[in-house]
Amino acid sequence: YKYLHGQAHEITDDAQIESKITPVIPKVSGYIQKILVEDNQMVHKGDTLVVLDGSEFALKLQQSQDALLQAEGQLGVAHAGVSQAGAAIGVTEAGAVAANTTIETAQASVNTAQANVEAAKVQVWRTKNDFDRYNKLYQNHSITKQQYEQALAAKETAEKQLKSLEERREQLQPIMDNASKEIKEYGTGKM
Asked: How far apart are CA 100 and CA 78, in angstroms?
């Protein structure tokens, strides 16, 4: 029986097989939301393999848009300052432009702070999940104490950064409210 079986089947304890493996190198990093291929499925150049979670990208886009709005507001303040210094006539117009620009800048700062808080919340979520995984691995003696402590430090750093950003956002809100109040008073002539 072994002779007949050996003619059709090859058995070994140290065999190697040859295969074609192509590394997949993404242009961006992120969490995978959906995998669109199966194991050992043939794919072609340009095929979509995975769909990434876009929430982090949306936060970064919002931060960039808010930073742009803030920069435009600062540019408006500069223009208003030039208008104010350059002409005695039209002072009220330059003041109105400066007040409007101040409120836009304050709003952009609040929006930026909010986007930063949201990004920090994502970072806290990620580091907490990583820490939970590392904690289980450490309890099973699968990782070193150093790796565990690094995950703990990353989690605590992310939590402290979130707290700091939330405090900054809370500090900006009164500035925004004050700027709104000033623009209203300026419009009614109470300043």
From this structure: 12
> Within 13 Å of residue 117, how many CA atoms lie on the same side as its CB?
15
CA distances from 128 to 52, 137, 160 (A): 20, 14, 13
Kindly indicate the confidence band of residue 191, based on its pLDDT and cuts at 50, 70 and 90: very low
Residue 180 CA to residue 100 CA, distance in Å, equals: 9
Alpha carbon distance 86, 41 (integer Å): 70
SS3 per residue for 15-59: CCCCCCCCCCCCCCCCCEEEECCCCCCCCCCCCCCEEECCHHHHH
Give every CB contact of residue 166 below 8 A, 6+ residues apart in sequence: 117, 120
Residue of 124, 101, 115, 119 whose CA lies nearest to 179: 101
Write the single-letter amino acid at 99.
A
Query: Is residue 74 pLDDT above 50, yes or no?
Result: yes
The pLDDT, as a whole number, for residue 85 is: 47
